[in-house]
Automatic annotation (TrEMBL):
Domain FLYWCH-type: 13-69
Organism from which the protein derives: Euphydryas editha (Edith's checkerspot)
Keywords in alphabetical order: Metal-binding, Zinc, Zinc-finger
Record GO terms (molecular function): zinc ion binding
Name the UniProt record assigns to this protein: FLYWCH-type domain-containing protein
Superkingdom assignment: Eukaryota
A matching Pfam family: FLYWCH
InterPro entries (alphabetical): Znf_FLYWCH
Amino acid sequence: MVSRDIIAVHWSQSRFGNPVLVIGGQRYRRCGQIVYGRGTWRCIKSDLGCKSYAITQFNHVIAVGNSHTSHNKKKIVSRNKKRKNLFYSKIRINGKGL
Ligand SMILES: [Zn+2]
């Protein structure tokens, strides 16, 4: 499905210096290399399960596929617990009563 709506498109850069494509306020990151001027971009939320992608050719967006999904999913936060455990084991290691 290719949207016929006029959507604002611009190029940007992530804070790591990687190219970012912004289509209608949604950010895409490049997936693979540009081949014969054609690049494939995947939604920045693709690791949350979003299947949206865009195809560009010579810096023009020629196709946008799939609508955005899964943007509101939150990654399971279990790191705080791990950090706590680390903290306690550190105290134990530092103790000199062993
Ligand atoms: Zn998306």
